[in-house]
Amino acid sequence: MRTLRVLLVVVALVMVTRASGAAMAKTYQVTGPVLEVTNDTIVVQKGKDKWEIARDAATKVNGDLKVGAKVTIEYRMTATSVEAKSVDAKGKTK
User: What is the pTM of this model?
Assistant: First the structure.
């Protein structure tokens, strides 16, 4: 009986983990040399573009993150605000 309870708890945890993971935004990557590092951002050169990626205390860093280091940053895009405009019957924004 105890084994059955443990099994049910494990199955429930797996289901909850999968459900919460399905709601997360897609993961992207950018790779290049670091141009600047602060407590809040990492700036990476990708081709001719400079990518500024936000970071916080929860950001996991493996290795020595410093200017000049080649890094691969994994990130997600998340909306911070949305402003919707109403549209008339002809499809034009009011």
Answer: 0.64
